[in-house]
User: What shape does this take?
Amino acid sequence: MDTLALIAETWQTYHLTLRTVQHLEMFALSFLITVVAGIALGILFFSSINIRVVGLSTLTVIEMIPDIALLILLIPLVGIGFPPTISAAVLYSLLPVARNTTAGLRGVSPDLIETATAVGLNKRDTLYHIRIPLALPLITAGVRIAVIFCMGIVTLGGIIGAGGLGAPLQTGITTGNDLLILVTGCWVTFLAVGMDGIAWGISRFVAVRFGGRP
Amino acid sequence: MGHQPVCSCAVRRETLTTLLEATVVHIMLAYSGLAIAVAIGIPLAVLSLRSRTAGVIISTITGIGQAIPILALVAFMVPLAGIGFMPSVLVIVVSTLMPIVRNTYAGISSVDPELADAAAGIGLTWTETVTKVRVPLSLHAIFSGIKFSSIIANGVAIVTVLIGSGGLGVIVLRGLARFYVPEILIGILPAIAITLIADYCLSRLETWLTPPPLREKNPLIPHPAGTGTLAHR
Assistant: This one.
């Protein structure tokens, strides 16, 4: 009971409810932008080979920069705190979503496309009714990676003043407060693993529903 | 971003030595961690191939482990292993181990079963099948894991300054505390350069290790499937 009271006190003192809300806000925003922009980019890359080569190479180069370095490089450009955190999370997570979307759209069997054309579907209908549904398993796999990347970078944002659960973690480290580290660390791990678990569940469902294999 | 003013106003001789020392510590930190992770990770992947139970346990742990934010891993070291250089190396080992195990396993387990059978058919033992057939054929997958881990290692080696690892993170942290952009950039740009150089060196090493007949695009070489792992370039 004593431990529980201590944990509750730590939670109160360091405003962990507020930190969690900030954390999830940043995560939700960066994740939504990533998914929408990533899928849009994936479709764009699918439609034009030139844009695909340029776009995917650019995103690959960004991916070669360590996440913390990207976060810090953005500080001179967009300021400190919230903006660089969101931008870094989006920039870093775009590649898996965009690449998997393009790969999924391109990977649809030519026979199916021929059949679709034969029954009178135009390019646009083929994209929306044949290619995108069949690409969903690969797209959700990319989105799942984006969940992990966004969570990781949003947590790192605590170091550069973005708030969220990274902030009490840093406070815990600098003040040597083991309890604060354990409480925040376990909580953020639980959130991250939980989000990844949900994403895993959705990707399994999509794989069974649209992939035709369990 | 104006690199010229950065050089003229912030780098004095004294800071240059500091920068060199910090860079050396950074490299030692990141790459000793990565080397240990490779030394542990590849045998773990082979073990996953050998025993189904071990495979399930290893893939579950590494799968969950990949989702844990790096900053949380770094923070956990304070109560669990203390602060300083060695705990920092430990964080790097833990965070780079997972992509290595997963990619190596993805590679060696997706080698064409007929090739593995053929290898067994000409009298190779299981171990020889792994070292002479499976690993050479999946070098691309293994190296994607190591390259991805090398990027992670460089990032973590900066974050570990919070637990007293030293290295380039010291300069970055000081720059952040004073919000002095040139100092932040001086700390971070060498880390990015090291990451890119390491990536290039690892690609060369991969080509060098690949048996000559397999160097061109070969349909027999499995490429990482791209759904279960974080790294597949």
